[in-house]
Amino acid sequence: MRTLFYVPGACSLAPHITLEWIGRPYEAIRVQYGSDKLLAVNPAGAVPTLREDDGWILTQAGAILDYLAHQHPEAGLAGGDGARAKAEGHRWSAFFTSDMHAAFWPVFMPDRYTTDQSKAAKAAVVEAGHRLVAKQLAVLERHLDGRAYILDGGRSVIDAYAFPMIRWAIKLLPGGLESFPTVQALHDRLAADPNVQKVLAREAGG
Question: What structural domains does the chain harbor?
Answer without folding.
Answer: 3-77+195-205 (3.40.30.10), 83-193 (1.20.1050.10)
